[in-house]
Input
Amino acid sequence: MDAVAKIMGIPFPKLTMDQTLQMLSDVVERDGSGLFHVVTGNPEIVMSCQQDTQLRSIIDEAGLLTADGIGIVMVSRMKGGHLPERVTGCDLLFKLLEAGNRKKWSFYLLGADEATSARAAEVIRQTYPNVSIVGRHHGFFSQEEEARIVEDIRSKAPDFLITALGAPRAERWIHKYKSSLNAKIAIGVGGSLDIVAGKVKRAPQIWQRLHAEWLFRLINQPSRWRRQLILPRFAVRALLYRER
Ligand code: UDP
Output
């Protein structure tokens, strides 16, 4: 059986959440092999990659691509590729914090607005007392401020750089500064810090089990409707796409 399922030409490794966690845990313990970039691949990223060759090469160069969203998993199953389950940035972040609490990992939080970033750090410190938040910065910075932020991350040398700048900005940012960040692993996690901080409510388990998290988000953040139009477009294009 293939180790990857192709979605519109992009190879997604067939990994469960537990296997992903094991892989990242091994990377943290291994040490010294450069930054390991994790891309949480959602339909928007897959669609953008069809025209954007630079984004495509960022994804090809990443250490790991995860199936961020039920749309990716469903399409893989309909086309016989069978991704085992979704591994979203948000779920992965919570699992990494749990594991980090046992293994005393360090995290740097980059992204979200200042109040959300501060609140997320506070919630993590209270909930996962053995995790170190070695630094944080909000995500509304100018290009001139970037060098100082990169230097801050470099000097803190976190195990994980959690990048909540929205996709694909996070992916581009991580790639651009890959060699300077001095983090073991960097992950783009979309709006997950908003959820950690309690600013945005995560869909309850029942909605997630019914694969209706997208509907919950739409009801709670109706301003996202335009962005969500991409989901049916993605499903149609991905199902018709002839994988080679
Ligand atoms: N964000 C940021 N800087 C920006 C724009 C957005 O830090 O210039 C943050 C925003 O506050 C939110 C996250 O990036 O926390 C994007 O969330 P969204 O759910 O839109 O992420 P996506 O699903 O697009 O990856």
User: Anything to note?
Assistant: The CA atoms of residues 120 and 196 lie 5 Å apart. Residues 4-240 form one domain.
